[in-house]
Amino acid sequence: MFAIFLTPAYLPFAIAFVVMIGIGLIEAIGLGLGHLDLDGDVGADGHGGVLDWLGLGGELPILIWLTSLLGCFTLAGVAIQQLAESLRGAPLGGPAASGVALVVGLLLNTLAANGLARIMPGFETSVISSDDLLRQRATVLEGVARRGAPARAKIVDRHGQAHVILIEPHDDADAIPAGATVLIVRRDGARFFALASEDTFLQPL
């Protein structure tokens, strides 16, 4: 039975299955590689559009989504090849079967990913939105941050994980040197704007 997975017609699905198992092990070990902030500016109206449709618009870790997709692709591929064998006496070619299985797998994974997102509301993860970095302290790593000339700064989120972001002064005339501690007050896309600590009595929330 398992020998058929080594034939060219089934090989793409065998590879997908092995990769799925590998990713599952990475997640099980807890390396945290599945955490990805997809909050971003994916839609001007506040919706993720295609990402939402694919099941990636929420906080489902990317590796869990990918594991689900590989599983759906594998199941769809095997089913397609078995159906082809029963109807025409031989499986489809690997590329043709893979193309059909990818389409079917994406459709199945949309349902699976959205289902997983609904049944995992209490999933504890270090995934954060970029907006969660607002009202937090950061330290300028190098260079001088000026309006139009951002500098790299390090910020530690509520989970204790460090992030390197680009900052500019909130006020046009300010310049923030390396080593300064700043308060992040707003962002525009991937760029954050900050006030030097000595310029404000605001405290991080």
TrEMBL record:
The keyword Nuclease does not apply. The chain crosses the membrane at residues 9-33, 62-80, 92-112. Residues 136-194 form the Inner membrane protein YqiJ OB-fold domain. It holds the Pfam family YqiJ_N. InterPro entries: YqiJ_N, YqiJ_OB. Residues 11-106 form the Inner membrane protein YqiJ N-terminal domain. The keyword Transmembrane helix applies. Keywords: Membrane, Transmembrane, Transmembrane helix. This is OB-fold-containig protein. It comes from Sphingomonas kyungheensis. The lineage of its organism: Bacteria, Pseudomonadati, Pseudomonadota, Alphaproteobacteria, Sphingomonadales.
